[in-house]
Inverse folding.
């Protein structure tokens, strides 16, 4: 077995990532490990980006994102950006690069009925609401009551009106029935796309057994989300994992009336303007 790039990382984690990526992608992941993912701003009110730029200087666009609403925060501007009060009062949200691409992939429209199946802490929910222009119905769910309370606080901070449910997402879709135009299934995962050598917490709960348990839960959540989707509706499945077991393999047993329209894998590598995090997106449509 090939040794870990750092004595800090479990060898089976490294081998799992190696088996899931191309050699070039794996090399980029190794090179990015000492740095961690970058950060971006998502404006939640008009003018928020201009206000932050007045404090920290010009901010570059993030590739494959809407520059009118989203900008990268280069590492040399990050500490100053964190001190800007707009991130505390709801004018904007600080995301990682992968997470800010989730809501646009789902592309909710004003008037849609939208379900966010695993919603806490609310960053992606806030983005969904912004895209909907607060027109339509937004239903959000979180299993943990403590995390649900944090979700409610964040929604209030962003002035978002949503129905907040608290319970197991694995059964929620069947209970609600096929009544949603769009469903987001952003599942709990191993977090292999966010491993950073500077923070042992990013791999502290890693184990092969945990990945198998998570993959089973992910399949149940995906099927629950599909059960909540109207015919003709759209679902996005997302993880911050690099492992095929949590990504492509989870999609392998979807119902016959569901089509995978596309998938997209973002992999970490040292890059300008920010380092990407590992992120997987899949857009599905129910016939």
């Amino acid at each position: 077995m090939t040794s870990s790039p750092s004595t800090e990382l479990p060898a089976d984690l490294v081998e799992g990532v190696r088996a899931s990526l191309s050699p070039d992608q794996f090399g980029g992941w190794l090179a990015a490990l000492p740095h961690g993912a970058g950060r971006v701003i998502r404006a939640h009110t008009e003018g928020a980006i201009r206000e932050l730029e007045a404090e920290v200087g010009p901010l570059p666009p993030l590739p494959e994102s809407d520059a009118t609403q989203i900008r990268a925060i280069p590492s040399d501007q990050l500490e100053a950006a964190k001190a800007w009060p707009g991130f505390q009062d709801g004018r904007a949200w600080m995301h990682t690069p992968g997470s800010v691409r989730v809501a646009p992939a789902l592309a909710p429209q004003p008037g849609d009925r939208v379900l966010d199946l695993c919603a806490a802490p609310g960053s992606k929910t806030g983005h969904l609401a912004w895209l909907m222009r607060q027109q339509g119905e937004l239903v959000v769910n979180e299993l943990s009551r403590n995390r649900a309370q944090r979700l409610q606080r964040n929604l209030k901070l962003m002035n978002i009106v949503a129905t907040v449910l608290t319970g197991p997402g694995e059964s929620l879709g069947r209970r609600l029935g096929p009544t949603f135009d769009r469903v987001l299934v952003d599942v709990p995962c191993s977090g292999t796309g966010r491993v950073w050598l500077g923070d042992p917490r990013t791999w502290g709960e890693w184990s092969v057994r945990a990945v198998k348990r998570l993959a089973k839960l992910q399949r149940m959540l995906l099927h629950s989300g599909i059960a909540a989707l109207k015919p003709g509706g759209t679902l996005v499945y997302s993880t911050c994992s690099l492992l095929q077991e949590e990504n492509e393999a989870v999609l392998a047993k979807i119902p016959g009336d569901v089509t995978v329209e596309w998938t997209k894998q973002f992999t970490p590598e040292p890059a300008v303007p920010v380092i990407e995090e590992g992120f997987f997106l899949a857009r599905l449509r129910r016939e």
In short: The chain has ten helices and ten strands. The CA atoms of residues 103 and 124 lie 6 Å apart.
